[in-house]
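Researcher: Quick one. two chains, 294 residues in total.
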Amino acid sequence: MSLPIAADLTAPLVIGESTIVLDRARLVRYAGASGDFNPIHWNAEFAQAAGLPGIIGHGMLTMGAALDLVEHWLGDPGAVLDYQTRFARPVPVPSTGTVSVEVVGTLAAIDVAEKSGRVDLLVTLDGAKVLVKAQVAVRLA
Amino acid sequence: MVNTEYAGRSYPAGPVYVVGREKIREFAAAVGATHPSHVSVDSARALGYVDVVAPATFAVVLAQRAEAQYVEDPEAGIDFSRVVHADERFSHVRPIVAGDELVTAVSVESITQRGGLSMVTTCAEIYAADGAGEPSELISRVYSTLAVREADA
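Model:
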């Protein structure tokens, strides 16, 4: 597997789309795997007392899940050099059923000399941005 | 009330964290990182890694453990019922792989206050540990900003 070749690419280029489906079980699973046991992600009373609409997903879960399409496009997760975002709005997760967050990844800039690029992630819930300035610096070939 | 006197404070690298293959697999499944190199040793080795590769955001596991020294200090004044995560950034020198033995140091980069909101930025530096458990090669920097609402007047 080799990385996409910078000189063969033209920006902007949509590199992939995905849907992140969240339910309460997934939040519990992420809490356990990550060690992030903040009660706003599993205790509705605590979340409401904290001024939230109810239990919300971990921002880090959305951030992590949104990266999946970038890793597949690159073919090598180690080619993710830098990944940053701002958390713009919470993702409320209902007690039953699911909530779906949409992701579109766009190669926004290419540096042929440096063999690197920048992927911008558009991450939305009901059309409103959940993450803003979600940018991934990637290594290309 | 967030204690602004903590700005600039740093905490030395703590105990060694040994990155387990099953931990990477567990984290990848939980976060939805489906690239085969997160679970398959053969797939990871085909890419030139010695063992399964952690997703880029796995570093938060080490960063949050290290940040706990600061954010859980009662004197720091960070009330978790008033905290939301504002920003996060991972800057990797190389990916974390299973078998890595890592140590993490944390510094409080800045604390700014405006309009009843405190923005607290920390930087966790993750290093490969040498034989004595001391930091050697830098692996990753993790910047995290928490927004803390002050108590209602």
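DSSP finds three helices and six strands in chain B.
Researcher: Thanks, that's what I needed.
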